[in-house]
Amino acid sequence: MQRTLDTHADTPIADCRPRIALAHDWLCGYRGGEAVLERIANLVQEIGKPDRLSTMFDDGRPLAPTIDSLEHQVSPLRYFPARARRWLLPLYPAAVGSLSRSLARRHRREPIDLLISTSSAAIKGMRAPAGVPHLCYCHAPARYIWSIRDEYAQGRSLHARLRGTGLAAISGWYRNWDRATAAHVTAFLANSAHTAREIERCFGREAAVVHPPVRTEYFTPDASTHREDFWLFVSALEPYKRTDLAIVAAGLADVPIKVVGSGSIADDLRQEFASPGVEFLGRVADETLRDLYRRARLLVFPQIEDFGITAVEAQACGCPVLARRAGGALDSVIDGTTGAFFEDDSPEAVAEAAAQCPDNPAACRANAERFSERAFDDRMRAHIATMLNARA
Fold first, then answer.
1. Contact by Cβ (8 Å): 102, 78
2. 137-192, pLDDT tens digit by residue?
3. pTM of this structure
4. Contact between 56 and 26 (Cβ < 8 Å)
5. How many other CB atoms sit within 10 Å of the CB of residue 282?
6. Which helix (H) or strand (E) holds 366?
7. Which of 213, 199, 276, 245 lies closest to 347 in space, CA to CA?
8. Is-contact 255 266, C-beta < 8 A?
9. Where does the record place the Glycosyltransferase subfamily 4-like N-terminal domain (predicted)?
10. Bridge partners, 321 (sequence order)
11. Domains of the chain with CATH codes
12. Which of 118, 170, 193, 335 is 20 to 30 Å apart from 354, CA to CA?
């Protein structure tokens, strides 16, 4: 049989996939925001051709293969130590403006079809090149400006007092900038109904809700593990996380508590609550955390979170959640079925609600599966397609 030659074999084929740029506030560690960025970056590789990733700070540490493989465009704030980023808030608008201009110059050489930002600080203020839509996944309007400024300034240290004074001085100016640059966003996505309401309050914009991805395939129940009589608290140890409330409430309920996490007030908490019933574990490996979720009587969740991934991780392992009736917990916890709510931030209210916390591992697991990585991917894929189709 005579073989037919492909006369076009040496002809270059144009890559017609959409080119998508990404933006993220900073690359200074892997937490919930970076998990969302990683999933979006994976989707971008699936759907189109990734352009570079714009960010205000990058401390150079590896985060995740997909994120690390992208070209990073870092703002002029790269000349400052990334650990000092909280003190550089007055420079954020200039940094975001610089990144916008850099993206516009690159767009003239290599046009992009979409900008996707993931923001809890300032990066949502980036201006996409003319005619290019900007889809923003917003974890929250900057909380230290819009909602819990006083909590960020709590503490006895000079650092806390200086932070409070600085935020009070610039908050009005920064709010004006933050509100004005919301106009640079074509469409907002929020990580919870609570955040969607905050976006409307702060920016006057509507937002569709896409809950963040939770690793429900990793965080699973184990029938061979039995529940033990202790409470679990998992969070960064910062003033607004209300670790103190969780510890005092556990004491009132006469139940031991294990505290997982690190943060700026870790040493203060260890000194104030040094007792046999309080165990500070620091940061732990995922395997250890999963084991704690499987063994704990409940996860106590006293803070108001925009979403709160730990509440879903716990339920995925069959652990009920004791939460404040506010914030993202209203999306993730079913009162009386997968956990219990308390109404105010008093230790007595927390301890009283704990007595009503159900023990229903199957219901917890079923509820958690609504927030799986696959569910996130499906919703994000649909929103990205909508933006690209509108441009076409």
1. no
2. 999 999 888 876 455 555 555 455 555 555 666 888 999 999 999 999 999 999 99
3. 0.89
4. yes
5. 11
6. helix 361-368
7. 245
8. no
9. 84-217
10. 299, 339
11. 19-213+373-391 (3.40.50.2000), 231-371 (3.40.50.2000)
12. 193
